[in-house]
Amino acid sequence: MTRIPRRERLIAALDVPDAALARAYAERLGEAVKFYKIGLELFTAGGYFELLAWLRGRGGKVFADLKLYDIPETVRRAVANLRASGAEFLTVHAERSIMQAAAREKGALKLLAVTVLTSFDQKNLAEMGYTGSVEDLVLQRARAALDSGCDGVIASGLEAPKIKAAFGGKLLVVTPGVRPAGTPTGDQKRTVDVGQAFANGADYIVVGRPIRDAADPRAAAEAIQASIAAAFKD
Predict the structure, then answer these.
(1) Exposed/middle/buried for residue 200 (C-beta within 10 Å: 0-12, 13-18, 19+)
(2) What are 5-16's pLDDT values in tens digits?
(3) Which of 29, 160, 221, 232 could form a Cys-Cys staple with 200, CB 3.0–4.6 A?
(4) Parallel, antiparallel, or unpaired: how do β-strands 172-175 and 10-13 relate?
């Protein structure tokens, strides 16, 4: 895979109520962030694609975290619409027929399959009727993602070592639920800190509340960038 610029390994989640606030937040972060995630909250607020174009116009990269999940034909047509948006990443749920349909239309988009949400744990899977371990399900879905033409997976840092051991550089691992030491975990259940995430094999990390809710978001982002630089001394 292409070498990843160090400062692009941090993806800041613009989890705010509307596009105007997202623009103000991105301006506040400044050069501390090069890659942004825009998800469902902003998608339902209006101005999503204008925001995406604005972020790209400032030299940023964009992760469209829309977690597409519908019948394969609907997903295929949605991805066909999205591929010209300029987004770098797009998420789909890790169901084989959905991933295959998305992969047929992705163009230059990198498709990331959502394995198991980091807000889920073993108890949640049991309630859904799954009797295996979280790790087993993540690996099963990662294998299906690779077979279906996806470029990577969304997975916690806890499962990243097994994914890299099984698939090496064939799949990107994008890890959400990252919590710098001393920050609250909130509703996230399978968390790691910045150093752990990269030591375990993550290629990118997604950080939301620890930056957004900090007294100085730009300083919080720069502190994470410093941790990333320490993890990649080459």
Answers:
(1) buried
(2) 999 999 999 999
(3) 160
(4) unpaired
* Domain boundaries defined on the chain: 6-231
* The pair of three-digit structure tokens given for residue 38, joined into one six-digit string: 């825009």
CATH 3.30.70.100 assigned to domain 6-231? The reply is no
Phi, psi angle pair for 113, to nearest 5°: -90, 130
**Which residue type sits at 37?**
K
Widest Cα–Cα separation across the chain: 47
Helix (H, G, I), strand (E, B) or coil at 164: helix
Q: Report the pLDDT value the prediction gives residue 141, as an integer from 0 to 100.
A: 93
Predicted confidence at residue 183, as pLDDT, reads 63
Annotation says 67 is catalytic: yes
Of 34, 61, 67, 164, the catalytic one is: 67
Burial class from Cβ neighbours inside 10 Å (0-12, 13-18, 19+) for residue 204 reads buried
